[in-house]
Recover the amino acids of this structure.
C-alpha cells in the first residue's frame, strides 16, 4: 500500500467510525478492508471507539447551574469595580507623588543631594511602572493565546 | 456500523437562532445576555473540562469567557453562530491557562475523574472484559494531550459533526479527520502498551 493509499484509508476509517461515509466511500472502504493490515487497524480502532462510547464526561453537582449566570454577572460587576478602584488609586497616587516630589524640590532646607536622590528615585519608579505596563500591553497584542479572537 | 454518542451524555450546543437575543444584548439588555449564558453554559463548561481536566478551572474559564464575550459583543457579526464565536474565546483562555499551569507542575492525575460510565453490557463475562478496557480507556483519555482529548470529546462525547468541529476549531475538514486519527491512534497505542 502506498503512503497516499494509507492516508486515504485512515481518512475513510475515521469517517466509518463516525458515521460520516458518503456514497461510493462505503465500497471504497470495503475494498480497503480486504487487506489484512487494514482489517487489523480497523478492528483495533473500533474496539477503542466502542470503549470510548461507554463513557461520558463526569457531571458537576446539579445546583452549579442555578448559580452559573449569577456568577458571570457578579464577576463582571466586580471586574468593573476593580477597574474603578485601580484607576482611582493610580490617579491619587500619581497626584500625591507629584506633590511630594515638587515640594521637596522647592524646599531649600532639604540638602540638594537628597533632593536629587529623591527625584532620581521617583523617575526610576515611574520608568519601571511604564516599562511593565508597555510590556503587558505588547504581550496582549502579540501573544496569540492572550488575544481574544473575534 | 455507526457509533453515535449516547443522547443522555451528549453536551453539544443546541442549534439556535440567537440573532434577536444578540441584538438585545448589543442594545445593553443584561437579561438577554443571561438568556444566552443559560443556553450555552453546559456545552461551554464541558468543552473547558475536556481541555483543562479540572472541574474548578473549567467553571472558572467558561465563566471568564462569557465575560470576555460580553465585553466584545458589539463586535459580534450578525449571521454567525454565537457558540462558535464564544468557543474561540474559551479555547484561547483554556490554552492560556494550560500554558500557565505548565510552569506550576500540577499533575493531571491528582484531579477529580474526568469521565463516568454511561452503559454496561448484559453479558457478565463480556461485561468484565469491557469494564477493564473501559477503565484503561478512561485513564488513557485523561492522560492524552489536551488538544487530542478535545477533538475526541467534541466528536465522541459531544457528538459534533466534522463540519461543526471544523468551524469550532477553525481548521479544514481534512484536518479534523487527521487530528482525530492521530488522537485515537495515540489512545490505542497507550492502551496496547498497558495490556
Amino acid at each position: 500500500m502506498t503512503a497516499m493509499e494509507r492516508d486515504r484509508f485512515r481518512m475513510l476509517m475515521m469517517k466509518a467510525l463516525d458515521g460520516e461515509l458518503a456514497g461510493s466511500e462505503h465500497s471504497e472502504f470495503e475494498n480497503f478492508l480486504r487487506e489484512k493490515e487494514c482489517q487489523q487497524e480497523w478492528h483495533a480502532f473500533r474496539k477503542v471507539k466502542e470503549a470510548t462510547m461507554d463513557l461520558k464526561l463526569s457531571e458537576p453537582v446539579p445546583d452549579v447551574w442555578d448559580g452559573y449566570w449569577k456568577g458571570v454577572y457578579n464577576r463582571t460587576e466586580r471586574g468593573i469595580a476593580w477597574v474603578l478602584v485601580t484607576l482611582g488609586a493610580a490617579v491619587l497616587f500619581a497626584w500625591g507623588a507629584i506633590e511630594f516630589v515638587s515640594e521637596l524640590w522647592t524646599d531649600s532646607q532639604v540638602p540638594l543631594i537628597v533632593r536629587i536622590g529623591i527625584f532620581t528615585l521617583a523617575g526610576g519608579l515611574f520608568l519601571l511602572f511604564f516599562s511593565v505596563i508597555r510590556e503587558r500591553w505588547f504581550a496582549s497584542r502579540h501573544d496569540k493565546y492572550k488575544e481574544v479572537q473575534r | 456500523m455507526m457509533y453515535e454518542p449516547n443522547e443522555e451524555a451528549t453536551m453539544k450546543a443546541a442549534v439556535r437562532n440567537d440573532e434577536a437575543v444578540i441584538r438585545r444584548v448589543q442594545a445593553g439588555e443584561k437579561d438577554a445576555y443571561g438568556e444566552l449564558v443559560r443556553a450555552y453554559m453546559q456545552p461551554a463548561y464541558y468543552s473547558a473540562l475536556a481541555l483543562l481536566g479540572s472541574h474548578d478551572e473549567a467553571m472558572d474559564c467558561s465563566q471568564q469567557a462569557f465575560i470576555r464575550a460580553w465585553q466584545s459583543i458589539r463586535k459580534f457579526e450578525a449571521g454567525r453562530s454565537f457558540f462558535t464565536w464564544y468557543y474561540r474565546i474559551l479555547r484561547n483562555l483554556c490554552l492560556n491557562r494550560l500554558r500557565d499551569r505548565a510552569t506550576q507542575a500540577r499533575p493531571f492525575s491528582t484531579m477529580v475523574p474526568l469521565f463516568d460510565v454511561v452503559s454496561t453490557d448484559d453479558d457478565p463475562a463480556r461485561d468484565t472484559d469491557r469494564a477493564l478496557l473501559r477503565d484503561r480507556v478512561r485513564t488513557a483519555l485523561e492522560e492524552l494531550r489536551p488538544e487530542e482529548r478535545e477533538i475526541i470529546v467534541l466528536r465522541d462525547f459531544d457528538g459534533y459533526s466534522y463540519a461543526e468541529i471544523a468551524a469550532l476549531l477553525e481548521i479544514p475538514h481534512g484536518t479534523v479527520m487527521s487530528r482525530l486519527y492521530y488522537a485515537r491512534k495515540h489512545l490505542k497505542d497507550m492502551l496496547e502498551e498497558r495490556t
Q: What stands out?
A: Strands of chain B lie at 115-117. The longest strand of chain B covers residues 115-117. Residues 9 and 118 of chain B are 7 Å apart (CA to CA).
